[in-house]
Amino acid sequence: MIQEIFGYARVSTSGQDTQMQLDALKQHGCTTIYEEQESGAKRDRPQLDAMLSKLRNGDQVAVWRMDRLARSLKDLLEITSKIEDAGAEFISLTEKLDTSSAGGRLIFNVFASINQFERELLIERTKSSLASARRRGRLGGRPKKLSDADVEQMKLLMDQPDRDVRGICERFNISRSSLYRLIQDPIAA
User: Fold this and answer.
1) Positive or negative: CA dihedral 157, 162, 168, 169
2) SS3 readout for 69-137
3) What separation in angstroms does the CA of 150 have from each of 17, 49, 183, 189?
């Protein structure tokens, strides 16, 4: 018999929103939901650790998708092992995985391995695409905001005895730290 249903919702960046996860977890019946904004690759996640420390025998941990709990197979297995050691069950709502039975644990391990495989393929494809683009002379990353002429103009303005650092920053729409970095290292533009 389930004692308490804990939910865990996570997003990686501030531009993302947990609302869809929260809605699904509430609909599942979660009584306590731990929510955080941290990379899944990062192991230091205070809300996850707080939830794991509260688990008791008969509790259940629910996530919207497995990748919300961890980004690597190793971490996923480590975290679910802590859940099992506490006597709790793990449920992934989207993948419809439930570790309360031997079959559920088997399917969980298969899905976890497939997720890890997909993540590694994505990383390999990304690296391959970037290398291919570099061979064709294209560089990845954000385009330069300022031209070489802009950087030279900044240097000339900074060499003036009556220079106005704030004015220079406003003129080129950059921060003070960017200004000093650019006049030291123009390649950073």
Assistant:
1) positive
2) CCCCHHHHHHHHHHHHHCCCEEEECCCCEECCCHHHHHHHHHHHHHHHHHHHHHHHHHHHHHHHHHHCC
3) 38, 49, 10, 9
Rounded Cα distance, 99 and 2, in Å: 13
Residues 6+ apart with CB under 8 A from 146: 154, 172, 174, 182, 189
Q: Which tens digits make up the pLDDT trace of 25-49?
A: 999 999 999 998 877 666 778 899 9
Residues annotated as part of the active site: 12
pLDDT digits (tens, 9 = 90+) for 68-91: 888 777 788 888 889 999 999 999
